[in-house]
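Following up on my earlier thread - several people asked me to post the actual chain instead of describing it. Fair enough. Here it is, all 174 residues.
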Amino acid sequence: MSRAFTPPDSLSKEDRLAMANLRRDVWTSGFKGLFYGLSSGFVLHTTARFLDQYIDESTKKKIIGSSRQINFNRNTAFLSVLLGGAMGSFIGATVAGKNGVHNLHRVMEKGKTDTSTPYQQVINRAREEDLEAETRRTRRIARRLTIAKHLEEGNGLSDSHGGHWLAENDSDVK
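Reply from S.P.:
Thanks for posting it. Predicted structure:
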């Protein structure tokens, strides 16, 4: 299971409840938005198909901007419904999350402070030093391989002349 569903022990019951409530609100608002989006996509497609029958060609050209004809069939209906559902779900979940994020300020403040034990701090510091040493070693090996490759191919280390010197002809010097 994801770590998101198992909050750390440093959080109180109220903080865990606030996180669970916000998560539930985001999910329910997402599903409500999905329902409203699916419905509105169907209604908008049906309305556009109905209006398409009664509008003359010149007005259609002004609205659409070209002389292309839009065919209202089951493919465009399916597209309208799915686009409406996707947009509705996204907007519903996003709005619920942004409206409820103020309930998590206390939780986020607790996450800023380091609550690890001294032993955990030593272990974390050792891991960071090992990672840094390994990164330095990898960079050093890559740099040595690159320099060796450039020297073997006859290319210089500088790009100013591409590693090829122009030989001066004796005939040019007088």
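The chain has a mean pLDDT of 83. That should answer part of your original question.
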